[in-house]
Every structure is written in structure tokens, then in C-alpha cells.
Amino acid sequence: MKMRSVLGFRKLVWLGLAVLLCSFPGWSQQPLTDQTAKSAQAGPQTTEASAGAQQDAGQRAGSIRGKIVDQSGANIAGAVVKLTREGQSSGLGVTSSEDGLFAFSNVAPGPFQLTISSPGLASHEFSGTLQSGEAYVTPLLMLVIPTQVTEVHVGVEPTPKELADVQIKEQEKQRVFGVIPNFYVSYEPNAAPLTAKHKFELAWKSASDPVTLAGVGVLAGIDQAADRWSGYGQGLQGYAKRYGASYANIFTATFVGGAVMPSILKQDPRYFYKGSGSKRSRILYAVASSVICKGDNGHWQPNYSNVIGSFAGAGTEALYLPANDRRGSGFILSSALIRIGETSLAGVLQEFVFSKVTPNRKRRAASQP
């Protein structure tokens, strides 16, 4: 009975000790080892790296390709295609194949811009956004011929008469040494034809010019000093007769040879300055101007107007000569030939001298007969 009591007491002691050990805090958790500590410290970093890897896996490179054609739909080979990204001043460039195809590989996702150019065609730009891992195919890219800007000035072209009006006004400003009238020369190789009104106005302008009137007075004074046409006598009366005869000769020759006959025969009474070619060719051209002229149709023809005008002037002068100084038809012929010779001499002077001493004439870069 006593032995059982002892055994029962020991069981109670061991049971209480076991309960005490189990309830002690130090024995309720496993000790933290170095490996466990390292794992605990590395835990957040491993999570962050894993998230970065997942992000990279979500932004995979892609490609861009397309085709370039012209307005007719034909493929354009050799076109330059430039790929640029936002914030980039330069980019990648490729050229299109014979089929007009181009491609960019390993392109990072995001917005992009393509600039396409080809010689003779207007440049074209295309923008898009490449998604992650996308094989982007552009729409058909068309290059067109650049727009040509043409300025059209709408106006009324002057008629030949209006053009002749302007040219005659320019001719009426022409004076040798700025003084002597030089109206009957044209420095325009293709001057507009004169109307009958132009021809009469030009003749009157020349015959009534103060310098012409003064020149006739000088000639009359020389004739009186040499006692030419002695039948007119001396003194003021003799001078007036000589002046009237000389002016009648000039007036008649100018109007008949420069206005009446040119209007009837459709001929141009002006001398057309040559200004080019050899000296010999220019001399021959100038000398022939007394018997060769340009018609209103622009063609060269015999100068009937000048020849008839010269004879008309000589005939008029013969009417005013004193009876004892008249020598019949021989005088008229010789006077007419002298005037024709004077016209040839005037042509030579126009070609080589007057053109250089007429400061207010209209200049031209080149001259053609």
C-alpha cells in the first residue's frame, strides 16, 4: 500500500515537470539560424527583382514594316525610310527593296515616326505606336509628285499700235549730243510697225523741231554768204527766199519720203540700227539703207519711199529757184541723187557715230539687223 503511494507521487512530479517545461517560452520556438536570417533579409530583394523581371517580360521588342508606292500604284525602289522616336534627333534608316518593301526589326515599343523620301517625289511622314512584341504593318505609303507653284500674271497684252506708240515716244527723245533730233532711227531690232498716223506725226515732229528750223537758217545763211542762187539777191529778202526754198526742200522730202509714200507702199521710213557683225558688213548695211528698207510686214524690200521722196524734194526746190538758175531735169536728177547719197552717209553716221553720242536713246544688250 505504501509502495503504490510512492509511485503515484513520482508520476505526479514528472507530470508537473513536463507541464512546466512545455509552458516555458524559450522552448516553444525553434532557434533562428544564420541561413534563416539571410533568407529573411533577402526576401524583399528577391521580390523586387522578380517584379522587374515580370515588367521586362511585358515590354518585348517588336518590328515595323511596310510598302511604298507612287500615285500610279507602282512600287518605289530605293526610297529612304528613316525611323525616329520621341526625343531623338536622329534615327535608323533603311531603303526600300525592288518591291517597295522595308522593315525595321528589334524596335523598342512606344510611339515612332517614319519619314519617307525619294528623288523627284514629295516626302511623306507617318506616325504610329508600337506595342510590346508587336509586328507592326503600316498602311500603304504613297509618295506623290510635289505640287508645282506657277505664278500667272493676268494682263492685257498691248496691241501692235499701242506698242508702236510707246516706241515712238522713246524715239522722239533721241537727240545727238542731247540737242540734234535723231527721231528716224530705231534701236529695237523687232520694232512694232508704224501706222500711217505714226508716220505723219513723226514727219511733223522732225520738220517742225526748233533745231531743224535753226539748221535751215544756218544753211540759208551759208548759201547767201556764198551768193548761191544769186537770183534771190542779198539782204533780208534774199535770205528769206533762200530760207524758204531750203525749208520747202526739207519739208517736202521729209513728208513725201517719210510719211506719204511709206503709208501708201507700207514701208518703214526708219533706219534700224545693226550694231553687230563685222565693220564691213555694217558699212554695207548702212550705205544700202538709202535704197533698202524694212516693210511694215517686217521683210526687207527696195526703198521706193526714200527714192521718190528725194526726187520730190529736188523737184520742189527747182520750182523755187530763180529762172536763171534752173537747169531742167538734170538739176532735179543730180539733186535727188545727192539726197540719196546723203541718206547713205546718214546711215553710216547712225551706225558708227550717232549711236555713241545719243545719250537719251534706249539701250539694248544685243542688236540684230
User: Overall 3D geometry?
Assistant: rod-shaped
How far is it from the N-terminal to the C-terminal residue, by CA? 168 Å
* Secondary-structure element series: HHEEEEEEEEHEEEHHHEHEEHH
Q: Helical amount among residues, as a percent range?
A: 40-55%
**Largest sheet geometry:** 4 strands, mixed
Strand residue percentage: 15-25%
Query: How much is the average pLDDT?
Result: 81
How many strand elements?
14
Low-confidence stretches: 1-7, 17-56, 364-369
C-alpha Rg (nearest Å): 56 Å
Tally the structural domains.
2
Return the structural class: alpha/beta
Helical segment count = 9
Describe the structure.
The protein is of the alpha/beta class and 369 residues long. It has two domains: 62-142, Immunoglobulins (Immunoglobulin-like, Sandwich), CATH 2.60.40; 160-354, no CATH class. It is built from nine helices and 14 strands. The protein has helices spanning 2-22, 34-57, 160-171, 196-207, 210-225, 235-265, 279-288, 304-320, 329-354, and strands spanning 62-69, 80-85, 92-95, 101-107, 110-117, 124-130, 135-137, 141-142, 175-176, 180-181, 185-186, 271-272, 292-294, 300-302. Strands 1, 4, 7 and 8 form a four-stranded mixed beta sheet that branches. Strands 3-2-5-6 form a four-stranded antiparallel beta sheet, with no helix packed on it. The chain has a two-stranded antiparallel ribbon with strand order 9-10. Strand 5 and strand 6 form a beta hairpin. Helix 5 crosses helix 6 (235-265), helix 6 (235-265) runs antiparallel to helix 8 and helix 8 packs across helix 9. It is rod-shaped and about 130 Å long. The relative contact order is 0.08. Residues 1-7, 17-56 and 364-369 have low confidence and may be disordered.
